[in-house]
Write a structure and sequence with these properties.
about 500 residues; alpha/beta; 9-stranded mixed beta sheet; about 20% strand; binds 6-O-phosphono-alpha-D-glucopyranose
């Protein structure tokens, strides 16, 4: 309701690459799937609360005519109150804009994980052209001359300025879900100036942490002739001013309808253990990630191996369950990661496995929210070992799922979430022994310490939930609009 009041009368348009629901053929039928994406996890509940139009790249296998015709009706029950408008891209556009510039260029450029970015002129041109197509769609969807437009992530760095040109009175809020690197790192991008100029079409530029927003401001200071006011966190460029701030993103709280039907933790354990063929009394260390090289899955496996080697009492007792949702599998760096992880898992299982005990269970599939909640509730430990992560919402989802206040979160220091969830066992994922030690400590942690840590983290996530995130950006935006109006009078 707070969000609705803040937006009363305003038209709201969200733009993201990922669509919140993917329609796929399954035999004769069309099914609806939710993609694995922190962005979708966070923004979808906001959209459900605010209504409006969501423009995204259509990626499912269902017929386009069918999906377009059902842009409202095809959503699952209770999710009808916003329109979903798909942009259909050709294979060539997907290659250049998504696989190429976004995921081989900007993604490794922004994540400090020592994967070399690849920049191709043709990818850049396609990226620009696709941003242009989305700008056209925004203008076509806008019914008023001053809509509120929420531009999401690194797929659309050029969109804010393209929209600003054609809808000068729009309130454009761009949110960068991934880290922003320091000026030297960013400077290797051949189109650094164009990207910064594109982003500065925004009214507000949001980042996950203060560190990232500071990096952005310093990057602009270094490469553009812009006026930077550090004190007010504003950047003025070619007569327009943007406000740069950090807004740590979060998850829905209270949970979605799904949380109402959570079985007790004991029932979750029973269900999960029988599905996985685990012996009662065994314990699960859980990892839930997209199958991405930024997530530190290799380092996690090394740590688990170290744990079993140095604490053989866990052999036969503890399994690492790693959910790795498929993503970007057309790219060589991702294929290399798959191969390496599969090899490591095979070696680990050969070394420590025995009849009735599989040390590592790797599931290279995407699970739905309901099953994930059961896994979170069944696990003894949840481990997030990202090498670098803008926020990481898995950590917050785990905390939210544990209303029994039991279970231990191991969390990489290099996630945005580590700033808020300081009661987790914070680790350096590059330091294998450190992570193994945290696993050991987690497995031995007394119930009352688990309760204290979770209770505190649950308060944080409850208070700083995603509605608060959206409310914070939107109230800054309305204050900003007012100030501009007042300044225009003098
Ligand atoms: C990150 C990005 C999102 C992206 C998601 C999934 O969370 O910030 O923009 O949607 O990863 O990646 P994918 O390429 O599978 O959409």
């Amino acid at each position: 309701t707070l969000l609705r009041t803040q937006l009363s009368g305003d038209e709201i348009i969200v733009v993201s690459n990922r669509e919140p629901y993917i329609h796929e053929w399954q035999g004769e039928q069309t099914i609806v799937r939710r993609p694995a994406s922190g962005l979708v996890t966070a923004v979808e509940p906001v959209m459900r609360a605010c209504s409006g139009t969501w423009i995204a790249h259509g990626s499912g296998s269902a017929d386009r005519e069918f999906v377009d015709a059902h842009d409202r009706l095809m959503l699952p029950p209770g999710h009808k109150d916003y329109a979903l408008r798909r942009i259909w891209l050709s294979d060539e556009e997907v290659r250049g804009y998504y696989n190429g510039f976004a995921n081989e260029g900007l993604w490794p450029l922004c994540h400090m994980v020592h994967i070399r970015p690849t920049f191709r002129e043709s990818d850049w041109e396609t990226y620009r052209a696709v941003n242009r197509r989305f700008a056209d769609a925004v203008v076509a969807e806008a019914h008023s001359e001053d809509p509120v437009i929420l531009v999401q992530d690194y797929h659309f760095a050029l969109l804010p300025a393209m929209i600003r040109e054609r809808l000068p009175r729009a309130t454009i809020l761009a949110f960068w879900h991934i880290p922003w690197p320091n000026p030297e790192s960013f400077g290797i991008c051949p189109w650094r100036r164009e990207i910064l100029q594109g982003m500065l079409g925004s009214t507000i530029l949001g980042f996950q942490t203060r560190n990232h927003s500071q990096n952005f401001i310093e990057t602009v200071d270094r490469y553009l002739e812009a006026r930077v006011e550090h004190e007010h966190s504003t950047i003025s460029f070619r007569g327009e001013t943007s406000f740069v701030e950090s807004y740590p993103i979060s998850i829905e709280w209270p949970g979605s309808a799904a949380s109402a039907d959570w079985p007790s933790p004991q029932n979750c354990r029973d269900e999960v253990f029988s599905q996985l063929g685990l012996r009662a009394g065994q314990r699960i260390i859980l990892g839930v990630d997209r199958f991405d090289y930024t997530k530190g899955i290799i380092e996690r496996l090394q740590a688990f191996e170290h744990l079993l080697q140095h604490n053989p009492q866990w052999i036969g007792e503890v399994s690492l369950l790693q959910i790795a949702a498929p993503t970007r599998s057309a790219l060589a760096d991702y294929q290399g990661l798959h191969a390496k992880v599969h090899d490591m898992v095979a070696a680990l299982n050969a070394r420590f496995g025995r009849a009735g005990y599989t040390p590592v269970i790797l599931q290279n599939v995407q699970h739905d929210q309901r099953w994930l909640a059961r896994l979170y509730r069944a696990a003894a430990v949840c481990v997030v070992s990202s090498l670098h992560d803008g926020m990481n919402l898995v950590s917050k989802e785990f905390v939210a799922a544990r209303d029994d206040e039991q279970g231990v979160l191991i969390l990489s220091r290099f996630t945005g979430a580590a700033r808020e969830l300081s009661e987790a066992l914070l680790v350096n994922p590059y330091h294998v022994e450190d992570v193994a030690q945290a696993m050991q400590r987690a497995l031995l942690m007394p119930a009352d310490e688990q309760r204290e840590r979770l209770a505190s983290m649950r308060m944080t996530v409850q208070e700083f939930n995603v509605f608060r995130w959206a409310g914070h950006i939107l109230s800054d935006a309305s204050r900003w609009r007012l100030r501009e109006r007042i300044e225009a009078r003098v």
